[in-house]
Amino acid sequence: MRLECFVSNAWVTGSGEGRPLINPVTGSEIARADATGVDVAAAMNYARSIGGAALRAMSFAQRGALLNDIAGVLIANREGYEQTACQNSGNTKTDASVDIDGGIATLKYYARLAKGLGDATCFVEETRDQLARDPVFFAQHVMTGRAGVAVQINAFNFPSWGLWEKVAVATLAGVPSVAKPATATALLSYQMVKDVVDAGVVPAGVLTLICGSGEALLDSVTTMDSIAFTGSAATGEMISSHPVVRTSGARVTIEADSVNATLLGPDAVAGTPLFDLAVREVVRAFCTKAGQLCTNIRRVLVPREIHDDFAAAVKSKMEEFVIGDPADATTQVGPLINMAQRDEAEEKISQLLRECVELARADLPEGLNEKSSFVAPRLLSCSDPASASIVHGVEVFGPCVTLLAYKDLDQAMCLAAAAEGSLALSAFTNDATLQVGIAAQLGAWHGRILFVDDTVGRNHTGHSIVMPQCVHGGPGRAGGGEELGGLRGLRFHMQRTAIQGSPDMLDRLQAAGVVAQL
Ligand code: NAP
What we know:
Elements: E1 2-3, E2 5-7, E3 10-12, E4 19-22, E5 29-33, H1 40-56, H2 60-76, H3 78-89, H4 93-115, E6 123-124, E7 129-130, E8 138-145, E9 150-153, H5 161-173, E10 177-180, H6 186-198, E11 207-209, H7 215-219, E12 226-230, H8 233-240, H9 243-248, E13 251-255, E14 260-264, H10 273-287, E15 297-303, H11 304-318, H12 339-352, E16 357-361, E17 378-382, H13 390-393, E18 400-406, H14 409-417, E19 422-428, H15 432-442, E20 446-452, E21 471-472, E22 483-484, E23 494-501, H16 503-512, E24 514-515
Parallel strand pairs: 1-5, 6-24, 9-10, 9-12, 10-11, 12-13, 14-15, 14-19, 15-18, 17-18, 19-20
Antiparallel strand pairs: 2-3, 4-5, 6-8, 7-8, 8-23, 16-17, 21-22
The structure holds NADP nicotinamide-adenine-dinucleotide phosphate.
NADP nicotinamide-adenine-dinucleotide phosphate is lined by residues 153-158, 180, 182-184, 213-215, 217-218, 230-232, 235, 255-257, 294, 395, 397, 423.
C-alpha cells in the first residue's frame, strides 16, 4: 500500500521509493509513504488562495459546524482506526483511545466553542483607549485570521490527536491546514483524512495532507504562513533556523520533548490516599503508549524518607504488567513504534544508568519476534539528583521512570526546574502552602501544573493527558510553544491590530466582531 498526498483538492502519489511504515510487533512492512515530485509549493498556494478565502468567508459558527462534521465522519469510521493504531503504532485499545478519541474530542470541543461565537469572523478587545484630548479619537485592538496557511508538522506518537488538535485551532481561526504526519505512523492520519475528504465535508483547499518528506514545506512558506511543529528539539531547531523559514517572516511554534516530573510532598507517605494516587499515575506513565507521550512523567521527585516505600509499591505493580501484542485485550504495555525507537530508548536508558541504578525491570514475554520493538519497562533511581545532569536532560521516549530522592523542599523545587522547562508537572500533596509555593516558584518552568490532593482524588484528567481547555506547550527545553487553551490557541493564527479612529467607526467594528481578550 502507498499513502497518497491530498494536494490542490486531488490525491496524488509520490514518484519515489518512499519510506516504510512497519508493524512494530512483527517488524513487517505495511505501507510506504512518499511525497517525491508532489508540487507542494503549488498546493500551498492553492490552500492560501482557495482554502483561505473559503474559511475567511465563513463565520466562527460555520467553521465550528465544519469541525463538527469532521468529528462526525471520524466517529462513523472509528472502528477501522483502532485496528490501524494497533498495527502501525503498536497501540493497545486504551492507547488508541487516547489518540483517536482525544482527536475527536478536541474537534468537538472547538466546535462547541465556535457555536457560542456566532456570526462574527474576528475578535475585538473590549477596552478602548482615548488617544486625543477631545473624545473623538480612540484605539481598540482586533484580531483577524492570518492570510496564509498553517503548516502542521507532527510527531509519530499522535497521528490522530496531533493532526486534529492543530486542524481544529487553525480552522476556527480561519486558516487552512497543510498537515504532515510523521512518516512512521502516517497510516492513521492518511485514513482519517481520506474518510473526511470522501465524505465531502471540507471545502476545497481547507485541508492538505503531505505523506512523506516535509522538506518542501519549509522551502515554500511565505510571510503570512505559520508552522506548528511537534517533535524532537533537534528537528525543531532545524526548522526554526531553516533559511526560508527565517527570512520569510512565517510564524513558528515548537512543541518539543521535555523531561517532565511529578513531585510527592512530604505528606504523601505510604498508607495515604495521596501515595496511592501517585503510584497509580506513575504506573500509567509506563503503560500508556508504552511511555511514548511527550507529557509523560520521566522523573519522580520523592522525599528521601518515602523513596523506598514508593519504589516497592511501583515495583510490585510492575511485576503484574501484561506486556505483549497490543491486539490482545489483556495487554497493558505494547511495543515502541519501531526498532529505531526501541534502540534509541535503550541507548538513552544506558545514558541514565551512568547516574542511576536500576530498581526494577518488568519481564518481556518469551518468544518475541526479533524484529519487534518492545522495551522492558524500567524503574531507575538517582541517589544524588542534585549533582546529576543526565537525568534532568535526557528524555527516554519509552517505558522508563526515574526516582529522585530529595532532602528538602528547596531542593525539590530546584530539581523540578533542573529540566530547564517542561510541558507538565504534577504534585501530590495536601499542604496548601506547598501548593501555592509550587505554583509561584515553578509556574514559569512549566506549561501545565496538576495538583492532586484529597479533594481532587481520582477526579482528574491525568498528568499526561492534554485537555483542549488548557494551554499545551512549555517553556525552554519544551520548545516555548503554546497550543490549545480554548480560544487562546487561536492567537498563533491571528494578527492583533490596533485600530485607531472615531468612536462611531469603532462601534461599527465592535458590532462585526466578538468581544474577547485572547
Ligand atoms: P522528529 O523526528 O523530530 O519528527 C517530527 C516531525 O518532523 C516528523 O513529522 C518528521 O517527518 C518531521 N521532519 C523531520 N525533518 C523534517 C524536515 N527537514 N522538514 C520538515 N519536517 C521534518 O520527532 P518524532 O520522532 O516524530 O517524535 C518524537 C519526539 O516528539 C519526542 O522527543 C517527543 O517528546 C516529542 N513530542 C513532543 C510533543 C509536544 O507536544 N511537545 C508531542 C509529541 C511528541 P518524518 O517522520 O517524515 O521524518
